[in-house]
# Entry
Amino acid sequence: MRSASDGLEALAAIRERPPNLIVLDLMLPKVDGIEVMRRIREELGERVPVIMLTARGQETDRIYGLELGADDYVVKPFSPAELVARVKAVLRRSKDAPFIGGIGQTIDFEGLSIDSTTRQVCVGDQNVELTATEFNLLFFLAAHPRQVFSRDKLLENVWGYSNYVDPSTVTVHIRRLREKIEIDPGNPRCLVTVWGVGYKFDPEGVSN
# Structure
């Protein structure tokens, strides 16, 4: 395990040897956590999972960090046990899909392929890079086509827990997925909102 006292030191350490997971405090000196998060995704892509540490009053920064590609967040003050549980959950999600039971399975629709072994997603003939959480969310919904899930149910099945997590986390991840796989993210046909209930995957919208 390595630590850094400021944003510049953190970026140098990450560039020298990319870690398996990053726990990132948004309130860093010199270069703040949001900028570190942005540079991580620019330079390393989506392959390194990131958990943000945020204060209770940082809801805007928290949402922005999720939109930049953070996998999860923990609100300060927190217990060490909670942080350890979140780290273990994110590491599991980055290696496999424990909450969806789909290891070795490939889901194919016309225009969309999701391979749980390689964790590769193809839209048409283009590979799409997803974070671990984005992949598991897409795979879970695609494995249950047309079934509607509330945000709480998605937190339970994809994140592995629903306590202490703002359901808006799901909303942000759905928005990021739409930007990556929908032809028109502003008018989604595949990842559909069912107002007042939750979200569903509509396979007929993949190629439309």
Notes: The longest helix spans residues 80-95.
